[in-house]
């Protein structure tokens, strides 16, 4: 037994007792846990960062050598310096901006993020809506062979304008018919968006130029892209592109036009992110940043620009189910309704930051014109249910008649311009569209004044015809006076040009439709012949710089509205009334026909929130 209890000191571990082994094991595992904990869970983890991310110069030097270390260190320092400077600059710019501008910018950013998120889900098919009644979209044979011959001539002119653009300017916005190359203006930014193609599509369609139409459609399918860094005019893009695409969609039924119109409209929406909701004149299609023309009174937006969106935007809401478009234009209308109007007139300038009028200038020509036109057409396009628009139109026209419309000594009715309490006795070519507008609005005017307005339309048509007839080329000048013995003639050299504008022919056409007086076809034919004689060149059609010179020089621009409007109105003038009847179609201000929306029991999304 004694031998068994005496344990020699040099005994091997195997000779340790089980409980001792267990305690040793416990101590060892506690030590290991402590080491791991210290390495991974200490609050300053810079040590292992250094190991995995070589920031320290020593490690960089070890890895890349001294040269690598120095340049990396320097470029790192430069980058940090540049970042700081940029941040400082941005902060300074932000501080300079007003609260409203900052708010508008944040809103633009938010919209952009929301759009980007939407895009990630891929394009969504647009919801089906009942197609409005599409009556009289082709033919329109006038019957009479003489009239038919004239109509064929107009079609031939359209073909010459289109073929020339196809050959020399394809894909550019417009054409230089003398230089035989592409052309553009600042209204389209620095983009090449094929403005002439989009603007011409519906004219090609109604003239039965199907191959040309298909060519245009193919270009649009393959090339028309709105994600471009271009600063465009919201108004021009709306009336020419959105209007053109919507009309092409309704006439042809080709989905691509609707999809493109909606894509583009989404790009215009950030322009409305202003303190008042009155849109900027221009917007960058990529960044969504908007601003106004430098020349406009005190940073103002222009009445004829923000007031000429209604027709297209209502159709966009109708086709997409997205209330945003409708709400934007109704917001503008409500805002205007609340404002004081000097002498009942709408000034041409409105500041989108303050919501106050700029200079008190009123015009039915440039800067004002299509605002009045769209009030009337909003009513017509709604199947005459939008009575608020009709009332606003009637009130505006009443004030215009009182303050702006006069008869000259020679008996010519003209529409002058109101400038700070004074009437300027000058009328623009653009103002000549008003003859057609008065005739179009005659039916439905208050106090049974239909006859009066039809008569007023006829008088304006007559005055504008005189402005053509009193020139050497039989083409009208840009502006003409009724002053000191001069009547319906341009005085200043820089008002003597004719740039293929449509307004006078537009008025002839409306007057023809309402009266069938043959003189309107006669006057239209005179204008068509003069254009063919003096503006036609081998590379298309060009504007001329002086309509009083028998030897005029060309401006070398074939405007897209020549194909969209001038030639379309001429073609309609020599067609039967069955082509695009006015009971079913309303022409936007760029002559793109949009169908009347017989909404019946349908309510536009967004309209409930407005009333
Ligand atoms: C066109 O773009 C439109 O008619 C617009 O309303 C004003 N002017 C040009 C043509 O002159």
Automatic annotation (TrEMBL):
GO annotation, cellular component aspect: endoplasmic reticulum; extracellular exosome; Golgi membrane
Biased composition (Basic and acidic residues): 112-123
Residue span of region Disordered: 112-146
GO molecular function: calcium ion binding; mannosyl-oligosaccharide 1,2-alpha-mannosidase activity
Entry superkingdom: Eukaryota
Binding annotation for Ca(2+): 589
Annotated active site: 236 (proton donor), 369, 478 (proton donor), 503
Location within or outside the cell: Endomembrane system
Pathways involved: Protein modification; protein glycosylation
One Pfam family it belongs to: Glyco_hydro_47
Catalytic activity as recorded in UniProt: N(4)-(alpha-D-Man-(1->2)-alpha-D-Man-(1->2)-alpha-D-Man-(1->3)-[alpha-D-Man-(1->3)-[alpha-D-Man-(1->2)-alpha-D-Man-(1->6)]-alpha-D-Man-(1->6)]-beta-D-Man-(1->4)-beta-D-GlcNAc-(1->4)-beta-D-GlcNAc)-L-asparaginyl-[protein] (N-glucan mannose isomer 8A1,2,3B1,3) + 3 H2O = N(4)-(alpha-D-Man-(1->3)-[alpha-D-Man-(1->3)-[alpha-D-Man-(1->6)]-alpha-D-Man-(1->6)]-beta-D-Man-(1->4)-beta-D-GlcNAc-(1->4)-beta-D-GlcNAc)-L-asparaginyl-[protein] (N-glucan mannose isomer 5A1,2) + 3 beta-D-mannose; N(4)-(alpha-D-Man-(1->2)-alpha-D-Man-(1->2)-alpha-D-Man-(1->3)-[alpha-D-Man-(1->2)-alpha-D-Man-(1->3)-[alpha-D-Man-(1->2)-alpha-D-Man-(1->6)]-alpha-D-Man-(1->6)]-beta-D-Man-(1->4)-beta-D-GlcNAc-(1->4)-beta-D-GlcNAc)-L-asparaginyl-[protein] (N-glucan mannose isomer 9A1,2,3B1,2,3) + 4 H2O = N(4)-(alpha-D-Man-(1->3)-[alpha-D-Man-(1->3)-[alpha-D-Man-(1->6)]-alpha-D-Man-(1->6)]-beta-D-Man-(1->4)-beta-D-GlcNAc-(1->4)-beta-D-GlcNAc)-L-asparaginyl-[protein] (N-glucan mannose isomer 5A1,2) + 4 beta-D-mannose
InterPro entries associated with the record: 6hp_glycosidase-like_sf, Glyco_hydro_47, Glycosyl_Hydrolase_47, Seven-hairpin_glycosidases
Listed Gene3D superfamilies: 1.50.10.10
Positions of disulphide bridges: 432-464
Sequence similarity: Belongs to the glycosyl hydrolase 47 family.
Function: Involved in the maturation of Asn-linked oligosaccharides. Progressively trim alpha-1,2-linked mannose residues from Man(9)GlcNAc(2) to produce Man(5)GlcNAc(2).
Protein name, entry field: alpha-1,2-Mannosidase
Species, as recorded: Pygocentrus nattereri (Red-bellied piranha)
Gene designation: MAN1A2
